[in-house]
Amino acid sequence: MKIDERGKTRCNGVQGGMPIMMGFKERTFAPLTVVSVEELVPQDHFYRHLHKVLDLSFVYDLVREHYSVAGRPSIDPIVFFKLQLVMFFEDIRSERLLMRQVADRLSVRWYVGYDLDELLPDHSTLSKIRTRYGLSVFRDFFEAVVEQCQKAKLIWGKDLYFDATKVEANASMASVKPRFAVEAHLAHLFAEEECSQVGQEIAPEKPAPPLLPTPLPETQQEELAATNAQRHDWVEDGGQPNREETHGSYRRVADYRVSTTDPDATIMPTKGQGFHLGYHTHYVVDGGKKRIILNVLVTPSEVMENQAMLALLWRTRFRWKLRPRQVTGDTTYGTLDSIQGVEDANIRAYMPLAEPGERNALLGSSHGRTIHRNLREHYSERVRAYHQTAAYEKAMGKRKVWIEPLFAEAKQWHGMRRFRLRQLWRVNCEALMIASGQNLKRLLQKRGWGRRPFPAQAMALMPPESFEAETWSRNLPLKNQRASVAVASFASWGVVRGFFEAKINLFSLINGVIVVSAFNVANIIFVFLTFLYCSTLIHLDRETFWPVKLMFS
């Protein structure tokens, strides 16, 4: 059987015949007609709603100081952050792949504001922009998103939950070398560059912000300044640990071994018997229903979870002007330093105590028995008293379903199982964008995204026009005297479930309306069975139960 170019079979060697069912598509491309990307993107598309709801004009104020007054025009900063959000929502692992996606998809082109004939930015430009902005701009972007969540009343602020998770670094264990050898090699490699910069002028540092007037005397101010200078601010230092601080003869593994691929990543044991290079991602989550992430910090995996807790707590509390009543964490946070800092701020520390061995050391001698008691033991006793309360049990049960699912969401859907960037300040930028996207999902839900229209087949319960509220005693405990409306979608006529299993007194005050999509036997049987089920459940007389109305569409 031969087929001509028109998709028809030849009949007796002559042209003509009948067309066959299997189609053939010719690769012919006509010149581009007059078409707009605005018309090609559906009106109900997700990126249209994101563009409508999320106003990113605040980005200009965040990055203005990073650009000169005159010079070659750069890529719009809003476009850069929109591309970062596309990476989050689409779970794209590299910026090279991101720009390929933007080139192929009309919806993303429309969202970033590039027409079909406009040249897209190169993927290497995004890396240079990230280096120009630094960590401070990404943290300001995250805090701007949290501020919008606070204005939308999504933050409760009464309970705070702390936790951290392990994230693999983008480096292999084969890149781990002795630290002294790596530092000696780098010192020899950049010795000439350091010598050439000796004669150059050093750029003046930015002036420090003026101090607020305080009624404290100068001596006390000097003491506070000295104390703050000795304190290690984890958030301000970007999660970088103070390696000069040691405890006795103990030395960290990271003091001897370092990765040449990612020097900030440290050796992290896995659930099995293996080891990986990784980081710790710390979250501070609000206790409200929306679970807004209030603070994020990434540290090397050698940093314990409790070390950065107080710094995160103070910054979260004063940045968002919160007065939490309780702070909840797992056993790792239950150290005396953490508990003392939380309790001294009049906040309840709901944490299991992390105390190895016996609480008191008992030493016997010929003169009697000596009991050693820690000077801060009263903090531990106060926390142990919390363990016997129902509020503590509720907080510990809530922690498992409040903050850990956020880590699972970020790892499963948004690429936080393994960081794609390297170096500590870059992985902090990546974690801040992931947390910003997670908060944006809650903010979009608050502002209308995610709602679905009513199904084609639905059942509604509503009072009749001549309805008057009853004054029966059984209705008095109800919080709402108005009849509520319930909607349920039925996949078929045979799905008759406990939809009407509400309070019986409500069914005596309502008028049943059943919407049927088509007039057929199946729907009639469905209506009959529903009416029979309601009559059996309610046990009301004919005067108080109004008949069911049928409306056929």
Uncertain parts: 198-204, 357-364, 451-519, 539-553
Please state the CA-atom Rg, rounded to the nearest Å. 33 Å
Oligomer: single chain
Helix content bin: 25-40%
Number of domain units: 3
Question: Which class best fits the helix and strand makeup?
Answer: alpha/beta
N-to-C terminal Cα separation, in Å?
Answer: 50 Å
The proportion of strand residues reads 5-15%
Quick one: biggest sheet? Answer: 6 strands, mixed
Mean pLDDT over all positions: 78
Overall number of strands:
13
Any idea what the shape is?
globular
Total count of helical runs of at least 4 residues = 19
Give a written overview of the molecule.
This protein is an alpha/beta fold and 553 residues long. It folds into three domains: 97 residues, no CATH class; 230 residues, no CATH class; 94 residues, no CATH class. 37% of the residues lie in helices and 13% in strands. The protein has 19 helices and 13 strands. Strands 1, 4, 5, 6, 7 and 8 form a six-stranded mixed β-sheet that branches. A three-stranded mixed β-sheet has the order 11-12-13, with no helix packed on it. Strand 12, helix 19 and strand 13 form a beta-alpha-beta unit. Helix 8 runs parallel beside helix 17 and helix 13 crosses helix 14. The longest helix has 23 residues. It is globular. The C terminus is likely disordered.
